[in-house]
């Protein structure tokens, strides 16, 4: 799985200039949406190496409960053995690209077990991505819980 995520990251990190695809989503938007899904898989599988590639060193992460984390703190929270995510999926995602920056908004669903207790969350998120050193990396992420 780690190899698959690494290959996906490298594939979508390449940045050729392609014309807008039919249907209104251009190549950069597609790449960034793929990276959002790769993030979910990396988080689900506790793949810190993939998260290192996807997340900017200066990441500001605001969780659904209002807590803030740095990149190091976020990755540590993902690796916490008390957290056992079973599913993390996005829906209704939209990416807006502004040169070397992009903003993604959408809804996520997550379920699993934390500290031996099942959980089921649904939230709205906004992620800000920057293109630096040949890679798209998420520099800011915020989520808010919404009703199931």
- How many structural domains are formed by the residues? 1
Total beta strand runs: 6
Mean pLDDT: 87
Q: How many distinct helices?
A: 4
CATH architecture: Roll
What would you call the shape? Answer: globular
CATH topology: Nuclear Transport Factor 2, Chain: A
Share of helix, binned: 25-40%
Strand order, sheet with most strands: 2-1-6-5-4-3
Helix/strand-derived class? alpha+beta
Proportion in β-strands: over 45%
Question: In words, what does this structure look like?
Answer:
The radius of gyration is 15 Å and the shape is globular. It has a six-stranded mixed β-sheet with strand order 2-1-6-5-4-3. It has helices at residues 2-13, 27-44, 48-54, 71-79; strands at residues 55-62, 68-69, 83-98, 101-114, 117-132, 135-145. Helix 1 (2-13) runs parallel beside helix 3 (48-54) and helix 2 (27-44) packs antiparallel against helix 3. The chain is of the alpha+beta class. Mean pLDDT is 87; it is low at 3-23. The protein contains four helices and six strands, in the order H-H-H-E-E-H-E-E-E-E. The protein has a single domain (2-145), classed as Nuclear Transport Factor 2, Chain: A (Roll), CATH 3.10.450.50. The longest helix is centred in the first third of the chain and has 18 residues, at 27-44. The two termini are 30 Å apart.
Topology record:
Elements (H helix, E strand, L loop, with lengths): L1 H12 L13 H18 L3 H7 E8 L5 E2 L1 H9 L3 E16 L2 E14 L2 E16 L2 E11 L3
Parallel strand pairs: 1-6
Antiparallel strand pairs: 1-2, 3-4, 4-5, 5-6
């Amino acid at each position: 799985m780690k190899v698959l995520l690494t290959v996906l990251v490298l594939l979508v990190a390449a940045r050729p200039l392609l014309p807008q695809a039919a249907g209104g989503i251009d190549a950069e938007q597609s790449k960034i949406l793929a990276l959002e899904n790769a993030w979910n898989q990396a988080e689900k599988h506790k793949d810190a190496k993939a998260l290192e590639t996807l997340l900017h060193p200066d990441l500001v992460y605001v969780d659904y409960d209002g807590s803030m984390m740095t990149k190091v703190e976020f990755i540590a929270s993902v690796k916490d053995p008390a957290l056992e995510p079973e599913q993390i999926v996005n829906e209704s995602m939209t990416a807006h690209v502004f040169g070397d920056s992009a903003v993604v908004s959408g809804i996520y669903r997550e379920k699993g077990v934390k500290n031996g207790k099942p959980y089921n969350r649904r939230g709205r998120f906004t992620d800000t991505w920057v293109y630096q050193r040949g890679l798209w990396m998420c520099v800011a992420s915020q989520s808010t819980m919404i009703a199931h």
